[in-house]
Amino acid sequence: METLITERLVLRPFRKEDLDDFYEYAKNPSVGPNAGWKPHESKEESREILERFIAEEESWAIIHKDTDKLIGSIGLHNDARRNNSRVKMLGYVLNEAYWGQGIMTEAAKRVLKYAFENLDLNLVSVYHYPSNIRSKRVIEKCGFHYEGTLRRANELYDGSIHDSMCYSLIKEEYRG
Known about the structure:
single chain; alpha+beta; Aminopeptidase; eight-stranded mixed beta sheet; globular
């Protein structure tokens, strides 16, 4: 997995040493539910997920250059809703202390550049729950096009059912 650099960030593979920073944001009840996962209940739970991130090599650790601190993750994953080997789904999460600073938009734009220019993908999709307005803003700032709402698309960890707002960006629309 290639390391990607932006003005304020380093996007690099996860490491075991990231555990404390990872657990810090993953246990926050304001973070996980926005992405559809339950807040981590223990550092051991975070360790198991971190080990999976390291093995799967689909997600970058978002490191803030000023502090060398892990502040979130961003990844390109298979989109189960599309049957196309040149399509990936963008997913991301950010420590609440860094919300509203344009950090995720900066990271997402760099990952999109990598997706279209290095991986030669022909489409990147992204989804958010209707209540996640912050994620919607990132998606809009990155130039994605709204495709529609998948009604009652996701059952979350707590049994609740949510719609999923669907967006995509095709290679020809991408402006690096």
